[in-house]
């Protein structure tokens, strides 16, 4: 059975892939895009192409190793394009592919929604923490 068949097995969807299926490769891509560093990297690259250190400064808190791993995964998934310039010293630019732009637009809509909802989230946290402390 091929991967697409394994992903679609047991679903009524017309899509060949089902992120809820354990063996579906879409699950791995979802993790790459929605993990902390993946989402921040994709969001930052939506502002335009960046060099590695520019991107590292923009995504505060990411280590060099994690950013490198994230960029490799996103490049492999076709979301990020890496272009090495034959200069001395070498220059490497990262930018979103057309697929990456679409992913970033959807992701940024969620990010903006969450940022705008922070007063509600913080109030809910305060209420939750207040009831937990009263036990």
UniProtKB/TrEMBL annotation:
Record-annotated HTH hxlR-type domain positions: 24-122
Gene Ontology molecular-function annotations: DNA binding
SUPFAM superfamilies given in the database record: Winged helix' DNA-binding domain
Keyword annotations of the record: DNA-binding, Transcription, Transcription regulation
Pfam families: HxlR (PF01638)
Protein name: HxlR family transcriptional regulator
Biological source species: Streptomyces subrutilus
